Amino acid sequence: MNITDREHLRALFTKPTNYINTNRGDAYYRELYKKMEKRLAQLKAQKPVREAEMKFEEYLKVWELTRRDFLKWVSATTAMLMLPPQFEPLVAQAAEVMNRIPIIWINIQDCAGNTEALLRSYSPTVDELILEYLSVEYHEVIMAAAGDQAEQNLEKAVKDFDGKYLLFVEGSIPVGMPEAFTIGRHPKTGVEHVKHLAEHAAAVIAVGSCAAFGGVPAAYPNPTGAVGVMDVVKGKPIINIPACPANPANITGVVIHYILTGEIPELDSLSQTKVCLWIQNS
């Protein structure tokens, strides 16, 4: 079946969403707490991917956010992750070690709207501060490097953090007209670019409706054969965070969950996190 035809899309979007179990019992949460404590201890023992210019507390001051603002965010995020209140100290610790997780962020067939939404925020939230604190090793929109230097930086990041980095993809992927997107002096198509980076990633996060399901570029008659990441990447954990632009709280929630557990969150039939659904429907 052609992955861009109407029957495929109808089947994809009419699957039932999985049941959300928000209370798994005391024994489950005791074991989960121990697992998260162990995971955080391992991350704290590691050096940051790159030494931050400022400590986390200093970021709060620069962004004019109080410790109270942060603690309110911790409570809300703990609830968003469907965890009991006793997990709040662990969520706070997870936020402070987010610079231990390397990030590679690429843009394919898109308007960079998700990136722009974060950059242009007038009243920054704690979620946006957290995303600023991440160790972003490569991001075509915001980095200073270009040309050969950019390609070298990307390949160095892939080599240094092979199997450890989270790959964020923004934009749909043109499979029907691969030449509609090429990048670099040694050009790769969007399909080749995404597949190469996904192969070496710990997980792939499709940010925004274009990366998740094709978005506007996939609208009829879809001249480039635009599709979402999950139609191209196979054999890797894929998380869809739709919306245009994606909610920063959804992005932060996914990363926090990965830091706490070393695993991706529970997904529904469309590879969306149940955290995303909870936020979007609340």
Write structural notes for this entry:
- The structure is a single chain.
- This protein is an alpha/beta fold.
- It has one domain: Rossmann fold (3-Layer(aba) Sandwich), CATH 3.40.50.700.
- 44% of the residues lie in helices and 12% in strands.
- The strands form three sheets. Strands 2-1-3-7-9 form a five-stranded parallel beta sheet, sandwiched between helices. It has a two-stranded antiparallel sheet with strand order 4-8. A two-stranded antiparallel sheet has the order 5-6.
- Strand 5 and strand 6 form a beta hairpin.
- Helix 7 crosses helix 11.
- The longest helix has 20 residues.
- The protein is globular and about 50 Å long.
- The C terminus is likely disordered.
Short descriptors:
Rossmann fold, 282 residues, two-stranded antiparallel sheet, 12 helices, alpha/beta, disordered C terminus, 5-stranded parallel beta sheet
Short description:
The protein is 44% helix and 12% strand.
Write the layout of secondary structure elements.
Layout: H1 6-13, H2 26-45, H3 56-62, H4 67-80, H5 88-96, E1 102-107, H6 113-119, H7 126-133, E2 135-139, H8 147-160, E3 166-170, E4 173-174, E5 182-183, E6 188-189, H9 190-199, E7 203-207, H10 208-213, E8 226-227, E9 238-241, H11 248-261, H12 274-281
Helix pairs in contact: 4-5, 7-11
